[in-house]
Amino acid sequence: MNKKVGVKFKPSGKVYDFSCGAFVLRPGDHVIVETEQGLGMGMVAVGPQEYKAKSSRKPLKKVYRLANEKDFRQREKNLVDERDAHSYCLDCIKELGLKMNLFSVEKSFDGNKYVFFFTSEGRVDFRQLVKMLVKRLGVRIEMRQVGIRNQAKMCGGVGRCGRELCCSSFLEKFEPVSIRMAKEQSLSLNPTKISGQCGRLMCCLTYEFDTYKKLKKDMPKIGKSIMTPGGKGKVIRHNAICNRITVRLEDGMEIETPADQFKKE
Q: In the CATH hierarchy, which top-level class contains the domain 73-146?
């Protein structure tokens, strides 16, 4: 029976499956694997699991070997080269007057390619920049424009909750987030309070959205007229967690009552 392991190349990156062959691997082990870009260094995130190879599916790429001290030194050297390339590229961008925000540089493990990540409000003509980088670095250059949310994921940081950003710690992909999710959870619609470090709506708005929808399913809608023990009034607020609603009576008084005790008019 064939065995596979899940390997991550970044702490918050996607987990990719590789055939582990005869290697005995455990989560946390560093391995050298075959990728489409050549050899790469990653960490085992999911231990060995049996799987059936399907003829209609591309065969899994293999774990080449366990990482050794030489590989760790190579990774450290790559980090130094990335910092140097980042500094030089910033100087080139300034010299050429390009409107782009360079925020990260990645060098392939075998050193034959650099990827420069940047954000920009529009398209950027970086052909001259690439020529300058190729002349200085002497390897393949790729310029990759990404969104502002991807920048936050790659750079990391601390959110308003005081914890490490979700996108840079455990989220593998971004889910759609809408202002309706904030409304459904009765949150403040002040952009500064529901936006993350990237300036977009916080990813955590999606976490409890389905729960709130379920809890509020049988509650009277805000603005509906209902009859309460204290008299007729309109629903002005929901407290979904406690299954209670706040009603403003005709005389202006506000009362809170269990949601399952109201009567529809």
A: alpha beta
pTM of the model: 0.76
Distance CA 247, CA 253 (A): 8
Which of 180-184's residues contact partners 24+ apart within 8 Å by CB, and which partners? Answer: 181/205, 181/206, 181/209, 184/209, 184/212, 184/213, 184/216
Of residues 212, 236, 242, the one with CA closest to residue 222: 236
Nearest-10 crossing angle of helices 127-137, 69-96: 140
Cα 150 to Cα 103: distance, rounded to the nearest angstrom: 11
Give tens-digit pLDDT for 198-233: 889 999 999 999 999 888 888 888 888 888 877 888
CB-based contact 245:225 (threshold 8 Å) = no
Ordered by start, the domain boundaries in the chain are: 2-67, 73-146, 160-211, 225-264
